[in-house]
Sequence to fold (496 residues):
Amino acid sequence: MKTLGITALVPPEIVFACGFKPFDLNNIVPTSTTRPKNKLCAWTAIWREQIMNGELDLDSLVVVAGGDCHNALVDGQRAAEKIPAFYLFYPFDGNKEYLKSQFERLSLFLGGITDPGIMKTVKSVKENLMKLDQLRSQGVISSELGFQYLISGCDLQGDPTAFKEELSRIPRERGGDLASMHRVALIGVPPIHHDFHREAERLGLHIVFDEMPFEFIRHTGKNINELAESYADYTFARDLKYRFDFLKEELGKRRIDAIIHCTQFACHHVLEDGMLREHLQSPELTYRVTESRNWETLLEGIPANEIASTGYFRHKIPHKIAATEITTAIYGVKEYLNDPEVIVDIGGQDTKVTDVRRNNFIVNDKCSAGTGAFLEFIAHYFGLKVTDLSKIHHKAAHTININHTCSVFALSEVVSHLVDGHTIEDLIASIHQAFAERIAQMIPEAEKIVLIGGTAQNRGITISLEEILKQEIHTPPNPQIINALGALRYGEEKEE
Fold:
């Protein structure tokens, strides 16, 4: 049987029916134990280079031009120098007749459909994969085991009958330990680390939804008409609102605690961070490589009756007393300032402004533009460490007006200024200014304003806030641990 290399979502039903064995080239990365070198796009670069070097034994190639990846179109043209290639275009508006014509052209490229009955077999396999997805969501099987099979929904490992038989032998022995974990959805492309799901579970995160593999398994049909009807709903090929609305519905079914948006740094999908936060209204975790440390390691040997917790996941760890960050911020700040009036806590996911005098607060938690995550994203964009931003701020000659407050559009505007010849130093200072202006709108008039949170270590933010508010901003030493200190003092008070 001839082998057909496919990229992104190519209907395996058609490939098998035309007598070819599909091989999803993008699965080379997430299923490999070797991490690829950092490139513009590891996924497309890997298969392009392997095709050019003659390392992949392929008879033909189908490149999806659009959908979840736009680099594939360029890489595919390069690879087409070595093997015959077909370019599959998904309609942006979901036009079923157009997609039907694309599928008919694809079948002709492959020599025509010779075994239409196999489409029914593929459909049956995908129905079993949908059941497997439900079992993982229910905690019957682990994140890692489920992912290993769901990611193969694109090519069924080249043999639908054997793959179906393998699915029937999957053990269903998990349960209790998964039930206590945070339920997380992985949005975007699969991670480049093959053991990502295993490590997530080790850290107490049970991934119950993988966006890309779910797209692989939910589309199917027994003939060209049914396939066009189903695949026209491929969300990555549609507008962002259509995709986000679909995600919101799916995540609602699964009782998600948080989402992880996974993408490569240089990929255009990274621009979706702020929009995902706004539309899905769910805590968004950042996928990055860190040391192997977690709360279990940090709390090793400390009994629960000696622990006071705070933060979004305060109830998920062993503790005797738990308090909100609003409460702990007040207790922590009072260790350094007796009578604070307003506390501004800039965290990674949200910004909280607490008016201590009136006992009320405002939280910005729907957009990343006013949070530490946005500054971290900007630092990565420029290839800088977050700790470098403050030093660079002081080297700026002047600031430029950044009009957009949405992180997605703000970045686009920054790129435009770079093209116009403005320096990175001026742009960093300008971003700090725009960031501070957004936060300043949340701050009521007060004489004693205190800035805490990890972002408070960035003097560029403090200086910008002081210039806007025209007053001194108090920043305690080690502002990133004020809430933890406050939790300790709160716990001690309740013990008395």
The chain has three domains: 2-109, 118-286, 304-495. The longest helix spans residues 118-137. The chain has 21 helices and 14 strands. The CA atoms of residues 354 and 360 lie 6 Å apart.
